[in-house]
Amino acid sequence: MGIITFGIPPNRNLMEICGEKYKNAVLELNRLWCYDIAPRNAESFLISQGIKLLKVDKPNIKILISFADTREGHLGYIYQASNWYFTGYSIPGGGNILINGEEHHPKSLYNKYGTSDINKLKEILNTENILYRPRSKKCRYVYFIGNKKENRELRRLCKYPIYDKYPKELPIDPEYKSKQKIGENQQIRKANLVNER
What we know:
With about 200 residues, the chain is α+β, with helices and mostly antiparallel strands. It has helices spanning about 10-15, 40-55, 75-80, 105-115, 120-125, 150-155; strands spanning about 1-5, 25-35, 65-70, 85-90, 95-100, 100-105, 130-135, 140-145. The chain has two domains: about 1-90 and about 135-165, Gcn5-related N-acetyltransferase (GNAT) (Aminopeptidase, 3-Layer(aba) Sandwich), CATH 3.40.630.30; about 95-135 and about 175-195, no CATH class. It has six helices and eight strands. Strand 5 (about 95-100) and strand 6 form a beta hairpin.
């Protein structure tokens, strides 16, 4: 049918979404995948079963967080259908480097070529087709899995606003900017790529 994975969130801000007291009670739903031939509602079934297992195997976990990538055309409909709280959009920071249309993380380029500087990479790879791609906004969702009393407290402590309505349209946001920083204040060219949906 599919797979679901949970992991420790990648940054401290997410760990402290409900304050210091609950920083060790947070996991991120970081992967959810189903076969195309999976039955209808397979994703929400996987989420509910994953949460049931977490409650048994990791009873200290009280908060789940996940993201939907707007660049990929996702608004998190599966989280909406599963009654997660929409808490706004993540603030994009950093980004990746496109080389001849293929996306690479700056760290992997540094490990391979000893630099992630775009001008140096152009020399090393003998191509002008290297661009910086800023990260996209992501819809942020939160789900509380404690008891009723804990969930009320967690909702009150959540440092992000909890919205009454879910997003139904992709945010209007320029995907590429003419000048972005990477490394030490490099200036780069505007990427003329089409956002595919």
